[in-house]
Design a protein that fits this description.
single chain, globular, alpha/beta, 4 strands, four-stranded parallel sheet
Length: 77
């Protein structure tokens, strides 16, 4: 299972990604909403974990744009 983690706090991102990898998930970590949107639109993910307060684009607008583009991956906020 491949997960996109969109989190700008390096410490939190590292902690969450480490736990997911230890559970055998493949994890891609990005630090801002624009890059998160680009990745989610351009690559295939089974799920996304998205922070609300992000640089460049907030998490809610990222999710709204994914839904407008008919990307139906499950999202944990």
């Amino acid at each position: 299972m491949r997960i996109l983690l969109v989190e700008d706090d390096r410490e939190i991102a590292s902690f969450v990604a480490k736990g997911l990898r230890q559970a055998s998930y493949a994890v891609d970590v990005v630090a801002d909403g624009e890059e998160g949107l680009d990745r989610a639109l351009g690559e295939s993910y089974d799920a996304a974990i998205v922070d609300i307060m992000l640089p460049k684009r907030d998490g809610l607008s990222l999710i709204e744009e994914l839904r407008r583009a008919k990307v139906k991956i499950p999202v944990i906020v």
